[in-house]
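Tutorial handout. Part one gives the primary structure; part two gives the three-dimensional structure as tokens.
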Amino acid sequence: MREYNQIESEALAGAFDAVLLSRSTVLDSGDPVAYMVSDFSSTGSFALSFLSDPTVDAAIAKASGIEPGEERRKAIMEAEQAILVTDAAIPVAHERVLQGEASGVSGAERDPNERDLITSATTVKK
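Part two.
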């Protein structure tokens, strides 16, 4: 077991059969498509899996071309499924945020990407 910065050049050169690492740090981009392009597209800049799959590329491109909203979320899930069936990545664990509000709070955002919580529609009744 080593820190990533100690194995990066070897990992990017394909020296390992498998690499277990957390990529949650890239999720702060606010958009899972950015992570998918970087890590799983044929032209990805951080493609440790060396995946080159036209079906995955098409699914990512589809998601990328849709404006934010429910349709994009569905396309992102389809792209995720396309990636997972290749075994290029195996999810190990995902910590979820549990969200609760006091009884006087209304309009808090329930964001499946865990990015939004308080919006202009959020109010607190005293």
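Part three, for discussion. The chain is about 35% helix and 5% strand. The chain has two domains: 4-84, 96-126.
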